[in-house]
Amino acid sequence: MENTKELRTWLDDMKLNHPLVIAGPCSAETEEQVLKIAHELKDSDVSYFRAGIWKPRTRPGMFEGVGEIGLHWLKKVKEETGMKTCTEVANAAHVKLALEHDVDLLWIGARSTVSPFIMQEIADALAGTDKIVLVKNPVNPDLALWLGGIERLYTAGIKNLGAIHRGFSTYEKSKYRNTPEWQLAIEFQNKFPDLPLINDPSHITGKRDMVFDVCQTALDLNFDGLMIETHYDPENAWSDAAQQVTPDALKQIMVDLKVKKETETAVSYREPLENLRAQINVVDDQLIDLLGKRMQVADKIGQLKKDQNVAVLQSRRWNEILGNMVMEGSSKGLSEEFVLKMFKAIHQESIVHQEKIING
Ligand SMILES: O=C(O)C(=O)C[C@]1(C(=O)O)C=C[C@@H](O)C=C1
């Protein structure tokens, strides 16, 4: 699959003057709940009304969705509000039902994207459809697996495609429910700049009061749209209560978000930008130079360890460095998360260098 301008035709054809917005409850609960939320979202930037009909849950015994009956409610949403509809599909049976009930857009969840078998089954069931199909990132930060899933759909003749960035599971706890790993989304855009990319701040944050900031970051990184879980009574939602926002909050988010231009040709922007970029180039060169020098010192320690038969990994020394650097970093306005990530990468490279010397 190659990047082509045609990949974004379905989105361009919508002629929106704002990012694409997909909103609605995490789960369809009752007909009244679905219709009430849909009516509250009717006069907003929302183009697609979402509701989970089949809910993949981590553990059994939780609410797993209302199933097929919810598709009738989505049809009513379309008839009564004019909004298009969408839901998640996770197997061929879901696809068949969703197509039969004329759902306009289907997405594939993170737990399905991880499995090439499931992706192929869904691709085969969707073969040739002109519905829009969006693929969430797999739970693990694996760009090739994400793109591979999309490719399976493309190969099955599905041309109205896009991706949803919903963040990644990690072993380490962080302030996010699923860490965004923005770098991966940036790499995604570098490979497929014209494939519409939607952000899902609800699953990234897991908390409604963090949703706005993640939306803003996504727009700053040129995302094409947002999928935001919305419920008139989020606290009492049957699933994901902490991360849903009310329809009014969603409308406010859309007012407050600053949509920026991709670039600017005016001299008042280009001139100072070029000057600042020249400064960045100088600093980047210095960084590389310093890192090279640091590795030369690590090589010398590696030789010493080889001669004296000492282990490469020296945890006490390493933790000392990390602690000092986090403190130094914070005095220079660098976040702990960044300093740790950067020094872990440096340590890794240092170990690779010393291993080469010891085993070379
Ligand atoms: O201090 C050492 O023993 C080193 O080899 C240097 C270094 C580093 O890169 O700072 C590398 C590996 C060790 O685990 C600890 C620190």
UniProtKB/TrEMBL annotation:
Keyword line: Transferase
* Residue ranges occupied by any Chorismate mutase domain in the UniProt entry: 267-358
Q: Which organism encodes this protein?
A: Polaribacter atrinae
Q: Name one Pfam family in it.
A: DAHP_synth_1
Q: Where is the signal peptide?
A: none
- Mind telling me which PANTHER family this protein's record contains? PHOSPHO-2-DEHYDRO-3-DEOXYHEPTONATE ALDOLASE, PROTEIN AROA(G)
- Coiled coil location: none
Phylogenetic lineage: Bacteria, Pseudomonadati, Bacteroidota, Flavobacteriia, Flavobacteriales
User: Known Gene3D superfamilies for this protein?
Assistant: Aldolase class I, Chorismate mutase
Write out the GO MF terms: chorismate mutase activity; transferase activity
Q: Which PROSITE patterns match?
A: CHORISMATE_MUT_2
Q: Which InterPro entries match?
A: Aldolase_TIM, Chorismate_II_sf, Class-I_DAHP_synthase, CM_dom_sf, CM_II_prokaryot, DAHP1/KDSA
Question: Does the record bear Iron-sulfur in its keywords?
Answer: no
> Is-annotated flag, keyword RNA-binding?
no
EC annotation from Swiss-Prot or TrEMBL: 5.4.99.5
Q: What name does this protein carry?
A: chorismate mutase
Tell me, which GO biological process terms does this entry list? chorismate metabolic process
